[in-house]
Amino acid sequence: MKKNKNTSNGVLTKTVRGLTLQLIRSVKQSLPKPNHVSDFNIKEDLPLNYDLKEICKDIRCDILTSIGHLGVGHIGGCLSVVEALAVLYFKEMNIDPKNPQMPGRDRFICSKGHAGPAVYAALANRGYFDKKELLTLNQGGTNLPSHCDMNLTTGIDMTTGSLGQGFSCAVGAALGSKLEKDGATIYAMIGDGESQEGQIWEAAMFAAAKKLDNLIAFTDYNKMQIDGTTAEVNDLDPLCDKWAAFGWNVIDVKDGNDVDQVAEAVAQAKANRGSGKPTMIILNTLKGCGVQWIVDLGVSNHNTNVTEEQAAAAIREIRGED
Ligand SMILES: Cc1ncc(C[n+]2csc(CCOP(=O)(O)OP(=O)(O)O)c2C)c(N)n1
């Protein structure tokens, strides 16, 4: 009897919760959305621009646009990975936005899946989908959830968000590509806080054991995580030595927000193919890079409110218009 009662209570609670969520969603959708950020920032799709510094500005502005329109997001850790995304999507990766499932394409797996809005901004700028979609970030019915989802977003090759797991998938993809002999390079981005997950090191060990020199990973070493600095929470140093000890080539990029330094590192990593070792590129980055008030928030910039007005001011700052 007791069991039945609990079960029917459970069903009732679930139904009420479902109806409430539905109600909130429909009220939210019926509210008019302020659109002044969208009005001035969404540019018409342009021909591919190989000026990586300009690309970085465009990606940063579009991150601000989407998160500012939504009102909240993982802004700090999105802004720190922009240069790596620009180099990959606009210089190095063998991809075709018109044929997103192209066999043998290079893959980028954003293991720190909460940086989805940064990847979406890169994909939209590269022509995978209309930039206007960025304004639907994390809203009901969107193709752009806050964390990467390969079943929803054109150009996203792996679902990520549970920290540690995406990197294992990247290692699996690199092994698969070797077995298929399709010539692809597999890229992955992991967070420094994420690097405290044991799963990262299991995957690292496996990748070296299987000689996956078609795998190039980045650590976004912004020295911050959700609730403090990495030094306070669980210090990673000496990080380069750790990766080297796990059998990886390691490239230490002094300024991971200098697009030229990042481009040089990726070129060097590609040249490591044939070495029988995967490559880790440590990017010393700044969480919130490009927008001073976001940098100044320090560890509070992990997942923070951004109003449309703040986004608009930040975009002017990025474009050097203030
Ligand atoms: C397995 C797991 N545990 C906890 C979280 C919650 N979480 C989301 S982001 C984050 C901090 C990640 O820090 P870091 O990897 O340094 O990312 P960044 O600072 O570059 O944004 C945490 C703990 C999660 N997504 N997955």
Layout of secondary structure:
Layout: H1 2-30, H2 36-41, H3 52-70, E1 72-73, H4 75-79, H5 82-92, E2 107-110, H6 116-126, H7 165-180, E3 186-191, H8 198-209, E4 215-221, E5 224-225, E6 228-229, H9 230-234, H10 239-245, E7 249-253, H11 259-271, E8 279-284, H12 292-296, E9 304-305, H13 308-318
Parallel strand pairs: 2-3, 3-4, 4-8, 7-8
Antiparallel strand pairs: 1-9, 5-6
Helix pairs in contact: 3-5, 3-6, 3-13, 5-6, 5-11, 7-8
Bound molecules: thiamine diphosphate.
Thiamine diphosphate binds next to strand 5.
How is this structure best summarized?
Helix content is 47%, strand content 11%.
Keywords:
globular; alpha/beta; two-stranded antiparallel ribbon; binds thiamine diphosphate; Rossmann fold; disordered N terminus; 9 strands
